[in-house]
């Protein structure tokens, strides 16, 4: 590092071997793949630092195509710039980042699979020629006071086709993934004579999603799931906790149906009580 500038340069070497004896075209092997990355961090002052990073992408995939062969690894490039902040002597940290990622051969489920896939009762995949994902990532987490901890994050991501054999440029690549995603959680130890008690809450909220299934499509409206928690520490060994999950009994898909046309609902409102002993 050259204060206040820090430079990071490196690479990763991957070995990957896949064998599928059930398909004539199922074998795939990469003897060596070098994936470089680089980044710079500039300390603006004692609180804030700016950074930029670049990395190439190489990710083996295990999804199978119509013929039963494994898809080629996903490749691409990723750029990111951002700002980080550190407060209260490192007790609270915040970050804001903008990213731009291009991926080739990224797997996606075939909307109208051929009879072969249906007979084998499996999801068949294709590789997108080129997909571009852009977005914003914001996060804050840490201690607001010695007894109060909190965290929150927000992600905005838009993934679109750049080139493809069956989809137009600009079409959404993964409409079954939310464009907006927000998460937050907090916990607080009560003061004074109630200091053995702690309470907390969490929330997960996301925007609407949909997925094409056969000749139709399935939809998931925007939703939010809230949880509450209360805990009591008897002594240094015993700790009790009560969680009320999905407080408002929100009905939502845990995973919106894919090409198979089946999906799973998220857990309804439920109460969980736990007692833990530690040394």
UniProtKB/TrEMBL annotation:
<dbReference type="InterPro" id="IPR036942">
    <property type="entry name" value="Beta-barrel_TonB_sf"/>
</dbReference>
<keyword id="KW-0675">Receptor</keyword>
<dbReference type="InterPro" id="IPR000531">
    <property type="entry name" value="Beta-barrel_TonB"/>
</dbReference>
<comment type="similarity">
    <text>Belongs to the TonB-dependent receptor family.</text>
</comment>
<keyword id="KW-0472">Membrane</keyword>
<keyword id="KW-0998">Cell outer membrane</keyword>
<keyword id="KW-1134">Transmembrane beta strand</keyword>
<keyword id="KW-0798">TonB box</keyword>
<protein>
    <submittedName>
        <fullName>Outer membrane ferripyoverdine receptor</fullName>
    </submittedName>
</protein>
<keyword id="KW-0813">Transport</keyword>
<dbReference type="GO" id="GO:0015344">
    <property type="term" value="F:siderophore uptake transmembrane transporter activity"/>
</dbReference>
<dbReference type="InterPro" id="IPR039426">
    <property type="entry name" value="TonB-dep_rcpt-like"/>
</dbReference>
<feature type="domain" description="TonB-dependent receptor-like beta-barrel">
    <location>
        <begin position="2"/>
        <end position="247"/>
    </location>
</feature>
<keyword id="KW-0812">Transmembrane</keyword>
<dbReference type="GO" id="GO:0009279">
    <property type="term" value="C:cell outer membrane"/>
</dbReference>
<dbReference type="Pfam" id="PF00593">
    <property type="entry name" value="TonB_dep_Rec_b-barrel"/>
</dbReference>
């Amino acid at each position: 590092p050259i204060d206040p500038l820090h430079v990071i340069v490196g690479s990763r070497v991957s070995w990957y071997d896949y064998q599928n004896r059930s398909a004539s075209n199922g074998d795939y092997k990469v003897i060596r793949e070098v994936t470089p990355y680089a980044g710079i961090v500039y300390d603006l002052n004692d609180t804030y630092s700016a950074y930029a990073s670049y990395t190439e992408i190489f990710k083996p995939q295990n999804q199978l195509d119509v013929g039963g062969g494994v898809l080629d690894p996903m490749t691409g490039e990723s750029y990111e710039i951002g700002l980080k902040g550190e407060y209260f002597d490192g007790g609270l940290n915040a970050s804001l980042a903008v990213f731009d990622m291009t991926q080739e051969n990224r797997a996606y489920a075939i909307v109208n699979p051929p009879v072969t896939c249906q007979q084998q009762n499996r999801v068949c995949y294709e590789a997108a020629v080129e997909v571009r994902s852009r977005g914003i990532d914001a996060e804050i987490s840490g201690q607001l006071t010695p007894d109060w901890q909190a965290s929150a994050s927000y992600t905005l991501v838009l993934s679109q086709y750049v080139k493809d054999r069956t989809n137009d440029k600009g079409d959404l690549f993964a409409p079954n993934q939310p464009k907006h995603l927000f998460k937050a959680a907090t916990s607080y130890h009560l003061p004074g004579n109630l200091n053995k008690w702690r309470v907390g809450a969490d929330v997960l909220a996301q925007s609407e999603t949909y997925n094409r299934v056969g000749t139709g499509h399935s939809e998931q409206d925007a939703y939010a799931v809230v949880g509450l928690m209360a805990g009591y520490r008897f002594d240094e060994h015993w700790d009790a906790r009560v969680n009320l999950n999905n407080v408002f009994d929100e009905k939502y898909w845990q995973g919106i149906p894919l090409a198979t046309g089946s999906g799973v609902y998220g857990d309804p409102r439920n109460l969980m009580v736990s007692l833990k002993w530690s040394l």
